[in-house]
Automatic annotation (TrEMBL):
GO molecular function, one term: metal ion binding
Domain Peptidase M20 dimerisation per the UniProt entry, residue ranges: 182-274
Cofactor(s) recorded in Swiss-Prot or TrEMBL: Mn(2+)
Protein's recorded name: Peptidase M20
Keywords: Hydrolase, Manganese, Metal-binding
Family under the similarity heading: Belongs to the peptidase M20 family.
Classification via NCBIfam families: amidohydrolases
Native source species: Nitrospirillum viridazoti CBAmc
Keyword Methyltransferase: no
Residues that bind Mn(2+): C98, H100, E133, H159, H355
Pfam family, one: Peptidase_M20
Amino acid sequence: MADVDDLIEPLTAFRRDLHAHPELGFAEHRTAARIAGALTDLGLEVYTGIGGTGVVGVLKAGASDRCVGLRADMDALPIHEQTGLPYQSRHTGAFHGCGHDGHVAMLLGAARHLARTRRFDGTVHFIFQPAEEGLGGARAMVQEGLFERFPCQRVFALHNWPDLPAGTIATRPGPIMAAADKFEIRVEGRGGHAALPHQTPDAILAASDLVGQLNTIVARRISPTASAVLSVTQINGGHAHNVLPAEVRVTGTVRSFDAAVQDRIEESLRQVAEGVAIASGTRMTVTYDRYYPATINDPEAAAEALAAAGTVCADVRTAPEPAFTSEDFAFMLQACKGAYLWLGQGDGGASAPLHHPHYDFNDAILATGVRLHVSLAERLLAA
């Protein structure tokens, strides 16, 4: 598939323009307009405003009613970029620190190639999704009828992966990314003078005990054969050295792959909070939000993805285990069979990890990403 090489220079320029003009979830107005314009120039049917700022391009060839969906996320992160690159973000507090600018460029490259070659029989839906970073843009698109308006027998997405060597492609059947839950526990005492702790329940002491107890849940209430993570990430309370605060907030995240494990962890968390509250004389209110489900690949779709990857890449791997990071492509996989893939972009440890202020997408993998999307479409819609 050497004929994608002529696309890489303009795709690199497009990607770096998006990088310089990042937009946060559900505010990707410039990004969506640029994508819609590029798809229109290719002669595709273009639909906008799906799930907020989502864009879908439709390309048909032949007479088959088979359909495949290819998805790229397009939002940035609320991080201040520190790369110092010539195309560094021009928007303070917004940054393509996860490579979604590269995902968009690769999918546009595939659209350009498939539009000019049309070596397939059926329909390809190019899905450009808003608000992947914690806001559930995939859910919004699905709820607004994505797969009713643009039916797919399979849907695929990829993500650049700094932990894999550049150009390597990996996926696996079953779970590939974790469900993501977040919790906040409000610990209420009465507050009072720090020199008179006997006169008020100590919310800070109760919160400290709570943190220790929470960190036993996975070790002592979940089977050793299951996989889960519970991390406390914030403790907020108090404003003066001589005052016992009336309130402390404890916040954290839970990651898991199995709904039964997820249920057990939430139940245990609530029980622990109730027990510590009784023991400390405080009042605890638990808010628990299961905001992303686990990303579960259909086994047949994962096998198809690995076969397609084998036509464009020498290093194709079945990932030995899933990652504990999360991905809202999970909502699309709940509605349509498909698979999620990792495309290596590592360079021997020199590249920064995802969500780091020094991260940048590796343009050297653009061609591999384009070829992978093209191979998926051509193999599943073989004429």
